[in-house]
Structures are given as structure tokens and as C-alpha cells.
Amino acid sequence: xxxxxxxxxxxxxxxxxxxxxxxxxxxxxxxxxxxxxxxxxxxxxxxxxxxxxxxxxxxxxxxxxxxxxxxxxxxxxxxxxxxxxxxxxxxxxxxxxxxxxxxxxxxxxxxxxxxxxxxxxxxxxxxxxxxxxxxxxxxxxxxxxxxxxxxxxxxxxxxxxxxxxxxxxxxxxxxxxxxxxxxxxxxxxxxxxxxxxxxxxxxxxxxxxxxxxxxxxxxxxxxxxxxxxxxxxxxxxxxxxxxxxxxxxxxxxxxxxxxxxxxxxxxxxxxxxxxxxxxxxxxxxxxxxxxxxxxxxxxxxxxxxxxxxxxxxxx
Amino acid sequence: xxxxxxxxxxxxxxxxxxxxxxxxxxxxxxxxxxxxxxxxxxxxxxxxxxxxxxxxxxxxxxxxxxxxxxxxxxxxxxxxxxxxxxxxxxxxxxxxxxxxxxxxxxxxxxxxxxxxxxxxxxxxxxxxxxxxxxxxxxxxxxxxxxxxxxxxxxxxxxxxxxxxxxxxxxxxxxxxxxxxxxxxxxxxxxxxxxxxxxxxxxxxxxxxxxxxxxxxxxxxxxxxxxxxxxxxxxxxxxxxxxxxxxxxxxxxxxxxxxxxxxxxxxxxxxxxxxx
Lengths: 315, 275
Ligand SMILES: Nc1ncnc2c1ncn2[C@@H]1O[C@H](COP(=O)(O)OP(=O)(O)OP(=O)(O)O)[C@@H](O)[C@H]1O
Ligand SMILES: [Mg+2]
Description:
The complex is a heterodimer of chains A (about 325) and B (about 280).
Chain A: E1 3-14, E2 17-28, E3 32-36, H1 43-50, E4 58-63, E5 66-67, H2 72-76, E6 79-82, H3 94-104, H4 109-122, H5 138-148, E7 156-160, H6 168-183, E8 187-192, H7 195-201, E9 204-209, E10 212-217, H8 219-225, E11 229-235, H9 241-252, E12 264-268, H10 271-283, E13 288-294, H11 298-306
Helix pairs in contact in A: 3-4, 9-10
Chain B: H1 26-44, H2 50-72, H3 75-106, H4 109-115, H5 123-131, H6 133-150, H7 158-185, H8 189-205, H9 218-226, H10 228-241, H11 246-273
Helix pairs in contact in B: 1-5, 2-3, 2-6, 3-6, 3-7, 3-8, 3-10, 6-7, 7-8, 7-10, 7-11, 10-11
The structure holds adenosine-5'-triphosphate and magnesium ion.
Magnesium ion binds near residues 44 and 160 of chain A.
């Protein structure tokens, strides 16, 4: 199997903080690797090492077989980075931002202009091309930022939390873009705090916590580990909460839980269970104002994998 | 527009531009492209040029009206004495902002992107220093205009005066690498400013800028004689109002090259280390 990038035993310390504690990551050629982890897990640190911005204290990483420390210059020709914090130049227009990067990548000026124009069109920014980026909305900035990492047609693209802070519509836009990238044969490393995002985009997921990989696998495998999906129901009449809980428990074959007031929830293993719950609730005459089937949140994944919530400190 | 012959409706099936190839003279091209970026940024936010526009006017007015009578007997004579020298201070002060701005910029995502690109480590720094040349030009123009209004007249010739300006700008360009280094080492932009002032104060005021050297105490005269900024000021005086400029030019150019050779590599090293 060929990996577009590989990291082995990466360790990085900042003073007393151990940001990475021996992490292994690998991205198969032409696939999306989702790196899922809560705040402070070490996602950005791992990306920065793979993008040659930081040197690891131990371990090694390669991109296209080239070492990110010893052959950093060559690695930089293969990668594109969209950092967690906007890396577009506010005072420059969309075109100027992209042309500059083209020139820094040794494109001739006319080629740099052509490439900028092409990308601005692809990302729906043609109209805003000649406006300073500071006049852009959050979603437009993100798209410009993504476009900037694609100027050099990189083999490997790092996207550090590309949708954090975007509303659902803009988030979907970004997802579409990422999917089209992979269609072009590019390998993507995507960090995220949302299992939903990793599930929607990634071929493989590595869950990291406190600088360690705590789970690895395809989205399906991971969901199996954490109990597939969860059905949530909110009875219209709060008095019937217990009845609803009984229905959910009967179908799922395990006790239902009440994550928030007025709501009952139970993990289920397939879509059939959901249909069954809908039918039985109707039969029992329990009206619901909300009924949903959703993936576990990162917090639930964490709770299953580590026995603690993402907001709790390690003992 | 010679090769636009594609049909209007056909979607681009082939990439417009293929994968970029490495080309020679990268550092020069990249530094110039980044210099242009910095220039565009400055021109889009002209407030950034306010200090280099106003500061020469204020300093000149203060010195001329406060000291003119005491030092030279008349403000008219004093402005002839002061202006070519204060040119050097003005332009040197203009360079501090390079360090301060870099210090602010470096923590932003843009610099992460530059670091992830296959360009020389020094290119973003050289670019900033080059882009800030505009500040020196603005400072020079503002100062000469003020001087002209107050009665300053070049007594040598146009080319000679131009040479004085160019020399001063080269001098400031080289010395600004000190501020770049400070900008890379210090955490806060305010700290950069403070340290830059501490460096500049003895250099620009320990000179014959505002009073003739002969009026100073002996120990200070010794400092003035070795202080390279004095030589840059005397060179400017000689080139604008007359006198022998040769040794002063040699001194200031020699010092410029020395500062550049020492501080530019140190600044680049500090930039690499700062993550
Ligand atoms: N430059 C630095 N100096 C000191 N500590 C750092 C530095 N960068 C990261 N850290 C620490 O390393 C740990 C991992 O940080 P990192 O930014 O990689 O996490 P993350 O998973 O990207 O988090 P987030 O989701 O908040 O972006 C954190 O505890 C952080 O405080
Ligand atoms: Mg992060």
C-alpha cells in the first residue's frame, strides 16, 4: 500500500506540555484521513510538523517518501496548507493573494494570474476577485484560504479544522470542495472536532487525545465501536417521557437514557430500529415534537473510548 | 492576449496551468514579490505613513525654533546646518516600523503559509524590508519639503543632493536589519519599539546633528567621532551644502555593510527559530 504521507512516533513538547506523545498517522494516496480530537488534543501540532513548520522532538514523518525535516524544501513543493487560523492577507484582493502565492511557487506572472482566475471561478469568488479580502464574509475567506492552498496543485493537502465557525450551508460548500479535491487524486489530511464531519468526508479516521492515537479505523468501524447511531425522541407531552423511554428500550434491547430534559435517547445498531421506533410510538399514541437519528457526538465517542468526557481533565 | 482561442462553452478539461517548475534566482524573485505585497499593504492603509510624514515636520520645527537662535544666531542659518543631518535621523526612525510590523505579522496565519511554501527562509524578511523603502522615500520628501518651506536651500547641486538622499536610504536600509532582529526576538510589538529607541537614541543624538561637535564635552566628542551615524550625517551635509564628503561616505557605507552582514543573518536565524 502506498501512503502519501506517514508519521511515526511523533513527539513534540512545548515546555512542560506534551502536545504529541508518540503519534502515528498515515494517509493512503488519494484518500481523506480524518484526525478527530477535542481542543488541545494535538491536531494542529501534528499538522504543523507534517507541513514542515515545526520539528518533532522525536519520531519521523515523510511526505511522498521525503523526510519533513531533512528534505523540507522538497516536501514544500508537494503540500498545500490551510491552517486553523485564516492565512489570507486581509489588505490584498482575492486575486492578489493567489497571484502572490503563484509567484512564490515559481509560476510565471501570466500563469499565476491564469491559475488565480481559475481558482477564484471554481470557488465562486470571481465577483469578489478584486476586492480586499477584509471585505469578505467568513465563508468567502475560508474558500479563498482553501484556494490558496491549491495554487501549486499539491499532492497532499492539510486542512486544519476547515469548517469550524461556519454555518451549516457554508460548511456544506466546503465539504463539496473537499470531496472534489479527492476526486482529483489528492490526499487530504483533515482535522476536525466533529465525528459527523469525519464521517461525511474521511475514508479513515484517527481519534487523538492528549497527543496519542486512541482509535483508528474506517468511519464504519469507529461507529461500530461507539455504538452506531442514536435515536432521540422528545414527547410532546412531558408526562409520557417514561412511556417513550420504554418503547425505545424495547426496540433497542438496552435501557434508554435522558441526555437532556424532556428527551430520551438510545443507541441503535441500524436504520431498521428507527423505523420500528417510529411505528411503535405511533401505535402507543405518543406524539413527539422531535425525533431524530444521529451519529454520536465527539463527546460520546470519547466517553465510550476513554470513559471520560472531552471537557474533563485526565486523571 | 495572443492565445485565447478556446471555444466559449467548452469547460476546461485540461488544467490552465500545470504544476509549477522550480526556476532560478528564486530568492530575488520571491523577495521582490513579497516586497510588492508589503508595498500594496502600506499603500492601502496610508495611515501607516502618518508617522514618517509628520515626525520630520515636528522635529524640524521644534529644533529650528527652539535651538536655531542659540546655535546659529538665526533660524535661517540653523536650518542649513540641521536639515541634511536630521534627514539621517528621520529616515532611521522610519525603519523601526519594519521590526514592529514584522513582530505583529509573524504570529498571523499568513506567515505560516509562507513557511509552508518552497521559498528561502529569508524571503519574507527581505520582502518586508524592501517594501518599507517606501517609508524612507516618504520621510525624505516630507523632510525636504519642510526644510524648503523654512528656507533650506541645496548649495551643491541636484545630483549631489540626490546622492545624499540615496546614501541615507541605503544606510537606513542596512541598519533596519537591527530592528528586524529585535522584532524576531521580542514577544510584544511594544517591546520592539522600546528596544529600537534605546538603540537609536545614542546613535542619533550622540552626533553633531543639532549642535556643532566643538560645543560638546570631550568624551562626547570622542563618541561623535566614532559614531557611524555622525559620519552619515556629515556625508549628507557635505553633499547638500558643501564640504569634503569622501571619508564620511566611506565610513557610513562601510558600517552599513558591516551591520547588514552581521544582523541580516542573525535576523533570519531568529526567524527560523521562532515557530
Ligand atoms: N507554540 C506552543 N507553545 C506552547 N504550547 C503549545 C504551543 N502549541 C500548542 N501548544 C499546546 O500543545 C497542546 C496541543 O495543541 P494543539 O494546538 O496541537 O491542539 P489542537 O488539537 O489543534 O487543539 P484545537 O482544537 O484547540 O485547535 C495544547 O495543550 C497547547 O496548549
Ligand atoms: Mg488546532
